Every structure is written in structure tokens, then in C-alpha cells.
Amino acid sequence: MKYHLLALCLIVLGFRGNAQADRIILGPPADEYVDVTGDGIADLLITTRTIHISDPEQPGYLGKHLLGVRTLSGNAILMWNTPSNLHWYTLEDSTRLDTALLAARIHFKQLSWTDEDHPTEFWLLERPFGPAITKDQDGWFGTGDHHDGHTLVLRSANHRGTSVAAFAFELPFPYGRVVVRTKHVVRVPNGYGAEGDLIVLKREDQEPPFDFGHEPEEPQVIVPPGLPPEEAIDLTSDDVPDVIITGYEQPSEGFFTRGVSPAPGTCFLMRLAAWGGSWELFRLGPEEALSPDRLKSGLESNTLMWATPDQSNVFCPVLHHRNHPAEGSPGWEPYYPEPKGNPVFRTLDYGRPVIGVVALQWTVPGGELSVDAQNWVEEGQVLETR
User: Fold this and answer.
1) Number of H helices, E strands in the chain
2) Domain-by-domain residue ranges, the chain?
3) DSSP 8-state assignment for residue 30
4) pLDDT by residue (tens digit) across 255-268?
5) Which helix (H) or strand (E) holds 107?
6) All residues at 6 or more sequence positions from 200 whose CB lies less than 8 Å from its CB, including other chains
7) N or C: more exposed end of the chain, with fewer CB within 10 A?
8) Chain centroid to CA 59
9) Entry pTM
């Protein structure tokens, strides 16, 4: 009998333990320091802040608690810094941290670090408070700052050395906790990735102080000569790459050439050249339209075709740079002296076939290359340049 009572007590205690572990945390939890790199020095702080709100239309809603993560001094987060990609840099494979690839991307101005002297904040959960908050409303909810499941990259520099770490946030929603999970850590030389450090521009005093008509121009980003690592671009916002900024070097020509190719699953429209019987990119000019009848007629007569990435000539050159620049070199230059129109692509947007215009923009002599969807429509509709 006493064994049955003991077992019953253990079961009850087990239920209480589970309930305690899974309970919703009431109010803002205490701060928690996190050592991501394992060097014994905290890199991140899990913390809270309270925002008080006075809204006459919601007299019983007094504000909200926020729960998130903040970098500590000496720590920076890696982010994309190109015209077509302005967001946090995330790893597809969290078990592998290729510091050589990251260094190359930083060197070619694709990536940069946040300011290690100022905190970078990720506010991940929020909880409303006030007498009007109902039982259904009382709990922790996502803020919309979506990072759960994404692997970010952190650089930690202190008196014990420099490390680069892959880490992720885990949100045991809706219980009001944030967990920082270290995925991979690599020790690197001091000064690693310094080319991507934030540069604060010093500006001359303006007269008058708020002269909005004469704001100083930002200096061009100077992309070094060479071939940067490939950069994938999502044109239709479905989280699937559609085109790739890539390039090649031909020593006989003496140039590095950069441009755009279709990604797997995307095609570029080609046309049969008027001479020689070779294929070249079809380009849609300003205020030009591609009607369904024109496209169908061209495909049926074999004067137009959709070309896949595995075909060697499916490449749109945009910029080139001498591979042995001498003093006074002009830097990056347009591949074509005159604009030739923009390529036309075909891809799937959540399984739906669409066609669109690849908008290309660039800076010279700096060499920044921007790729966006100038316009796209469902296949079977008229495609126009805007």
C-alpha cells in the first residue's frame, strides 16, 4: 500500500514540476547574460523593457512589456549590405561557419557589421498589461520581428581574443522565454572582418543648420576589383532566389565582368539574333510591352525561347573592371556604353508561373550592382516596363 502512495506522490510532484516548467512567466523576467562564444565573457543580454501607453480610446490598456536580446559592448552582428539585400545575414547550414567566405563577402562590400560600441536589439516577444486586458489577451505574443529558426552570425572581440559564432533564438512561445542557442564557434585573428566595420562619416557644419535643400551626398561604396562571391536575389518575395549576381574573368580580354544569371527554376527570355543564327538576351526597352500573342508567336516560330541557367550564354553583363588596374584606372565601367533595355525572366511565385522585367542599376566607378523586379505579372498577361 505504501508503495502505491509513494508512486502517487511522485506522479503528483511530476505534474507539478511540468506545470512549473511550462507556466506562463508573469511580468517581465529577470535579465540573463549569455556567453555565446564560450570564452567566459557574456556577449548578449536577454532583457526586457516596458512601454507605457496612454490612449483615451483604450483607457484600460496601459502599455506592454517587451522581451528581447541586446548585444553587449565588443559584439557585432553580421548583415547584408548590398542594394538588393538589406537584412540580417543568416546561415543555411548552421553546422558550418565558413570564415573565408565571410571574409570575401566583407572584402567585396557585400556584408558589414553592426556597431560594436552600440547595442543591437532584437525585441522578440511582447505582453500587454492593464485592467482592460482579458484572460485571452494576457500572454506573450510575437512582435513580428521574425528570427525564430534563423541562424545569425556574431563577432565577439575582447581581451581574450576574437571569435565568430553562429547562433539562433528559440522562442518557447507562448510561455514568455527567449533561449539563445550556440550553433558553431570559430576562433579568428584579432581584426577579423575589420573591412566591414561601421564607418561614421564626419560632416561639415551646415549653414543654416537645417539646410534641407543642400544635404551632402553619401560617398560611393567602392567595390574592389575582382569577382565577389555570388549573391542570390529573390525578385518575387517568396523566399526563393530567382537570379544570381555573378561574374567571370577572361585574362585575354583583361577584364573582370559582373552581371546577372537566372537561378535554378528561373529562365531568361532569349531571341534569335538577326545575323549569325546565335541567341542573345531579349531586352524590354522603356515603355515597351510584351503581349501574350507576341510571346506565343515568338516561341512557336523559334525566334524566342526561355533559356535555363545551365545554358552557358544565359548571362547579362552589366559592369567590368580591368584585372590589372594601373594608376588612374577608371574603376568599374558599364559593359555596354549605351543602355540596351532590361532582361525578361520567368519563374514560379508560390507555384504560380509569372514573368517579369529585371531592373538593373549600378554605380560607376564604385561598382555597386542592384537587381530588382521592375514589374512582374502572371504568365498570360501583358508585361510592361514602368
Assistant:
1) 3, 24
2) 26-196, 231-384
3) P
4) 999 999 999 999 99
5) helix 99-107
6) none
7) N
8) 40
9) 0.86
